[in-house]
Structure formats: structure tokens, C-alpha cells
Amino acid sequence: MTAVRPARTPLLGEYIRLDPLLKADLPDLFAAIGHPAVFAGGFGGGPSGYTDSLAGFSAFAETYFAWERSNVHAVRLVGGEHDGLLVGTSTLGDFDLENEHAHIGWTAYDPRVWGTAVNAEAKLLMLGAAFDNGFGRVKLQADVLNDRSRAAIAKLGATFEGIVRRDRRRADGTWRDSAVFSVVVEEWPEVRAGLEARLAAFDGRPVGLR
């Protein structure tokens, strides 16, 4: 099957909805992820990428997200008292149609939803969109120093491929090594089943804020 870029339309799950991120959403996104703890893990190039103002965050977002080349998502809660609340962002991008490769990344969530159903369902929805549209390999990666993100990616069922050394600059100008993982289409049924089992443990209860 020849890969095609997934349509930029909402992806609806049981706990979250992935909508196309709009620049009009940036104030709400800043409220959700504009915290030092989010950038400390490597998002936005690391701690030096953090800014404490909406103006600074908007300027950062203008260049950080590949608005036209990628499917940049706003992550919103579904159901419960916080229905519709924007709690983060994640992107399916780096589309290589000829080689059927894509990349899930540029992910950050409100710390109040860490450890909930949010990340597992976001990955389930985006991986499903990629494989349903003919992609054969989806890459996920993290700064080698980001133990939290590396553990979260491994927990998804992705396979660790290795370390890409001196891969990209952090916001402070230092060079990061990247821990690279992937899910290939042959593994997708098992990975999907694992993610669905994790989500079932939440028993359909709407995500609350911690």
C-alpha cells in the first residue's frame, strides 16, 4: 500500500480528542504546557527553551511546530467536568511517503494529566492514523537524558533502535543525543492490543486533573 498523509481532521477517542492545532489555540496551549517542568524533560529544546510569557511562547511555537508540513494536534479531554479542555499537543509528521515512514513527536502535556489515559490514547490514535494510511514505520524519539520520556515510549510497546549521537541542538546550544524507537506495521496489532488493554484499566472514567 502506498502511504498518504493522513487528513487533518479530528481523531476521537474515549478519553481525548485530537484536533488540528490552530494558532488561535496558543493561549490555551500555553496555559496547559507553559511550565518549567514540561520543558525540563526536553520539550522545546530543553529548559532554556522555556519562556514565562504568552508572547514568548507564541514566538517559540511559530517556528517549533511544522504547521503546514505536519499534522499538529491539540489534545483535548472528552467527557466529565473538563470536557473540551486543551491539555497538550502532539504531532504526526516528517512524512516520507516513498519509504512509508512517519514520526510521532513534539509532545507535551499539562503536568496535571501525566500518568492518565491521555498519552496512551494519543499514541493509539496517531499510530492508527499512520498505519491506516499506509505507513510501515513510525519513529518516536527522546533526548537520551530524558528518562521519563524514554520510559513512556518503551511502555507504549515501541522497539528501541539505538542512540543517534550529536543529533540536534538543545535550546542552550549544547548537542543532544537522541534515543530512537519505532513501531513497524507488522508489530502494530500487538502494540495496539497493549495500548487498548492499558486504556481499559481506566474503566471509561473521564480524565481528571491531578
Automatic annotation (TrEMBL):
PANTHER family: BLL6696 PROTEIN, N-ACETYLTRANSFERASE DOMAIN-CONTAINING PROTEIN
Species annotation: Conyzicola nivalis
Name of the protein this chain belongs to: RimJ/RimL family protein N-acetyltransferase
UniProt domain N-acetyltransferase: residue ranges: 16-180
A Pfam family the protein falls into: Acetyltransf_3
SUPFAM superfamilies: Acyl-CoA N-acyltransferases (Nat)
